[in-house]
Write a structure and sequence with these properties.
11% strand, 5 strands, five-stranded antiparallel β-sheet, 370 residues, alpha+beta
């Protein structure tokens, strides 16, 4: 399984959790909104029924006060409420839609009672003006309207109870539901984040484990072990890398074999020649100035001329291994820096040779010819 596939799995799981969370929260919010609308409707019905009762009481109080005292100022309250009470009754009926049979019967009774009360009150007010308080009071008592306020109060309270029972969810429960939904949303978001983090850590850890043998193989190749090959990995996205490193190892092994073969041929040629040959690399300081030369290779003829062993000069510096070359050191530097050439007779261990010095890369090629 590749790194990308692991991340995709984590993202898919996160999307599933996110989708479930969003769906649940959406349903909860929709439910809460319906609850809030139902609660608001119940509150409106409570307000309208309270207003209806207050208007009825105000209407009855104004009529009775005028009948008892004869003060026409009480008719102001009666005149205002008698026009409002019918409109409020219609508003209560509209808020109660759809009506249950019990609610319809109650509202019909309230409408009839209000109409009857208004007719009786108007008759009583007219009689009070024309015939006096006794006749008006007798009309009210005869119409049995003295306890209408108590009857309407009981009926309105019944309507309010029915509204509350129809819309069970209370207004006070909505904030708590919003908090519960918010907590669930936070839990869902937290779960999504945890899934993404775990998927990323899983993918990174697995990728690191897959890259570990590649790093080890590259290090071994860098150290010269051209025969090492990285075993095939199980992760698809590192298989091309492993194949490329193994191909590189094959090519390096082939090149190393060819190089060694060429070096062997070159060494045989150099050591078979009758000229003494040595190769020296320039040693420079921090300013780039040549301070010495280090021997890279000396053939058998060179070693025999100086009566030294085969590997004596290799790795040694000129000033310490060939102190008799010190008078020529400045000329050697010029050969390297100015591409000059030097050829002169030179004695070695009592035998005369011709020393030929030429530039070779950043160093010298010295030859001793008899």
């Amino acid at each position: 399984m590749s790194f990308l596939q692991r991340l995709i799995i984590g993202l898919v799981l996160s999307c599933l959790v996110a989708g479930g969370t969003v769906y649940f929260v959406w349903m909860r919010i929709d439910e809460i909104q319906h609850s809030g609308s139902h609660d608001a409707r119940a509150e409106r019905l409570q307000t309208e029924t309270d207003r209806l009762l207050a208007q009825f009481i105000g209407m009855e109080t104004g009529a009775r006060s005028f009948i008892i005292t004869g003060d026409s100022t009480h008719l102001v309250l009666y005149s205002r409420t008698v026009g409002e009470v019918a409109l409020t009754a219609k508003q209560v009926r509209a808020e109660m839609q759809p009506l249950s049979p019990e609610a319809a019967s109650t509202l019909d009774f309230i409408d009839a009672a209000l109409d009857k009360k208004i007719i009786e009150a108007n008759q009583a007010i007219a009689m009070r003006r024309e015939q006096g308080i006794k006749i008006a009071a007798n009309v009210i008592i005869k119409g049995k309207a003295a306890n209408q306020a108590d009857t309407l109060t009981a009926l309105i309270q019944g309507l309010q109870r029915e509204a509350r029972s129809r819309y069970v969810k209370q207004y006070e429960s909505v904030p708590a539901q919003y908090r519960e939904t918010a907590y669930f949303l936070l839990y869902g978001v937290g779960t999504i984040i945890v899934i993404i983090i775990l998927a990323a850590l899983w993918a990174v850890f697995a990728q690191r484990q897959a890259l570990k043998p590649i790093i080890e193989g590259a290090e071994k190749l860098a150290l010269g072990d051209m025969y090492y090959r990285i075993p095939p990995g199980r992760t698809s996205d590192v298989k091309p890398i492993i194949a490329a490193v193994n191909i590189l190892g094959d090519r390096l092994e082939s090149m190393q074999g060819k190089t060694r073969q060429n070096e062997d041929v070159y060494a045989d040629i150099v050591h078979a020649t009758t000229e003494g040959i040595s190769v020296w690399r320039a040693v420079r300081n921090g300013y780039g100035q040549i301070t010495d030369f280090e021997c890279q290779m000396a053939n058998n003829t060179w070693n025999m001329a100086y009566r030294r062993s085969m590997e004596y000069f290799t790795g040694k510096q000129m000033k310490s291994s060939l102190p008799d070359f010190l008078p020529l050191f400045d000329q050697y530097k010029m050969i390297v820096e100015q591409h000059q050439k030097l050829s002169l007779p030179y004695p070695v261990e009592g035998k005369q040779y011709r020393l030929i010095a030429t530039k070779m890369r950043d160093g010298l090629l010295l030859r001793l010819q008899e």
